[in-house]
Amino acid sequence: MKLFSRLFGFVKPYSGRALFALSLMTLGVSFDLLAPWLLQLAVDNGIKGGSMKIVIQFCLLLAAGQIMKTVISYLQGYNQELVGQNVIFDMREKLYAHLQKLSFSYYDKAQTGQIMSRMTGDIDSIKNFISFGFINMVLGVLTFGGTIVVMMLLNWKVTLISMTTVPLLILVLYQFNKKVGPAWGEIREQMGKLTTTLQENIAGIRVVKAFAQEKLERKKFGVRNEVNFDTNMSRAKLEANSFPVMNLFGGAVFLLMNWVGGIYVIKGEMTIGTLTAFQWYAWGLIWPLQMMGWIVNVMQQAFKAAPRVFEILDTPIAVESPADGGRPADGVQGNVEFRSVSFRYSEETKPLDGEQEKANSSEPGEARSKDVLDSISLKVHAGEAIAILGGTGSGKSSLIQMLARFYDVSDGAVFIDGVDVREYNLGQLRKAIGIVPQETFLFSATIRENIAFGCPEATQEEIEEAARRAQIHDFIQTMPDGYDTVIGERGVGLSGGQRQRVALARAVLLNPPILVLDEATASVDTATESAIHEALADVMKGRTTFIVAQRLSSIQRADRIIVLEDGHIAEQGTHKELMANDGFFRKLYQLQQDAEGFNASMELTQHANTAVSGAWEVKA
């Protein structure tokens, strides 16, 4: 009942139209109950009395009533569909808005396919019930009840005998309702899993093809598809077992009525007109009962789909602005302090990327009890460039995520300009922090729209300036429509380095006081990386910059280097100071220097071979 009332809470804003549709439906039912009585009068007073005039009069009344009912049915159908569409529109808007507010911790465990299934198929099931199922259920109840009352008034004996099989029909309907509910619940769940498999395959199609695993993916999808097929067939079997029996008992009502009614007519206890009317009324008994099977189907779909939708709507928002809206962040200078910051993943979250790998390699239960960040204390002055290094799972990305409140700290606090980040307005806080992530996401839109995503009001000149600083302007000019060129989904059509530079331009355009480069040049070649860093030298001036990197070339302009290990600050200092220590930084530096030396040697060898080959060709 609670679920029912919650569903119809969405109908409340449109209760006027809903009541109008119900009123029209009541008028239609009234005509359906009146029409057989008019037919009875036409037969008994007109046909039996031999008066064609009376027959014509009643036929005209029936025709006028039918025209009126046609108009009523149109208005009723339009209004009930309008109510249903408005309800689903509001539900989708509310669900989507809530999804936008949910924190990273929700998306760490949520499956995209399941969310898509709930936003589409589940909400459509709810719409079908609100638009047609509920009002037809009311229509059936009114028609069935009204028909019994009228028939009892005409001849209660024939009515009671004719309805002998109705209790059996209701019993079959009850049993069907008990079984079809769980069946639809399983179908909705399996459809979500099928959608998830499809979404993952499409998103990872390049990996599938790169490893030639099309056959494996077809098999995986085939298994899900087969389970979905079997689940639907189980539900279809329930319908096949129940609907024919309902039709049998419904047909028995009509047969009993004609049989018993015929006996009463022969005995003179019932007129031919009344029997004719009873045959029409019989349909008012049969179709509501038979239709109830379909209505139960629609209702159970909605009642199994609604909890899946409400599950998302009921998910608490873990990270949000303070109740009063929070402090404005438009005047942020960029002084940052991590004060005894610790972070651990709760039961609602799970480790990401490097932290996930580390958790998988730990002893059972260890990942839950060990902090990803453990009492980190760090002060960064406005305009200072800080490089953050560390091995996989050391907590580099987690530290940065605390800054923009993608997650909230478990202990301690993060301050910007002396104010706890939890006191700022969340939207303004994030606009004050320009982030270039390692895994770049671009929308299926123009390059202009992608660069201006965080600042839609930016002028063309500002967009182009940001692109120049990110070393992508010249490439954009070579594209067919320049900045109006539409790139494919997730940036398909651009190389990894080009996508990274578009994302860099997007962050630069915000003109944020704090800039975060999370492996921002990991996908570009050495020459492009060097050009980007030259451009960023100007961009970084006056900004607090955090550079999360593995390649030491990316941190050459850092004022200070922080080395993380197992969630602690293992080392910090300038390049010169860290080289004086025999720690992680010095070992990483030596490894990369050896690798660069090897690569340079290989390039020299290749150039020498080319030169020798060229000399032989000249002599030849």
- Cα-atom Rg, whole angstroms? 36 Å
Give the CA-based shape. elongated
Describe the largest sheet: 6 strands, mixed
Helix content: 55-70%
| Intertermini distance | 94 Å
Architecture overview:
A hairpin with a 2-residue loop joins strand 4 and strand 5. With 620 residues, the protein is an alpha/beta fold. 65% of the residues lie in helices and 9% in strands. It has a six-stranded mixed sheet, with helices on both faces. It is elongated, with a radius of gyration of 36 Å. The protein has helices spanning 2-9, 15-47, 52-101, 104-109, 112-162, 166-203, 205-210, 214-266, 272-313, 353-361, 366-369, 396-403, 426-431, 447-451, 460-469, 473-478, 496-509, 526-540, 575-579, 584-619, and strands spanning 336-343, 373-380, 385-390, 411-416, 419-420, 433-436, 514-518, 544-548, 560-565, 568-573.
Summarize the structure.
With 620 residues, the chain is of the alpha/beta class. It contains 20 helices and 10 strands.
Main attributes of the structure:
20 helices, alpha/beta, 620 residues, disordered C terminus, 10 strands, elongated, 6-stranded mixed beta sheet, single chain, 4-stranded antiparallel beta sheet
SSE blueprint:
Blueprint: H1 2-9, H2 15-47, H3 52-101, H4 104-109, H5 112-162, H6 166-203, H7 205-210, H8 214-266, H9 272-313, E1 336-343, H10 353-361, H11 366-369, E2 373-380, E3 385-390, H12 396-403, E4 411-416, E5 419-420, H13 426-431, E6 433-436, H14 447-451, H15 460-469, H16 473-478, H17 496-509, E7 514-518, H18 526-540, E8 544-548, E9 560-565, E10 568-573, H19 575-579, H20 584-619
Parallel strand pairs: 3-8, 3-9, 6-7, 7-8
Antiparallel strand pairs: 1-2, 1-4, 4-5, 9-10
Helix pairs in contact: 2-3, 2-5, 2-9, 3-5, 5-6, 5-8, 5-9, 6-8, 6-9, 8-9, 15-17
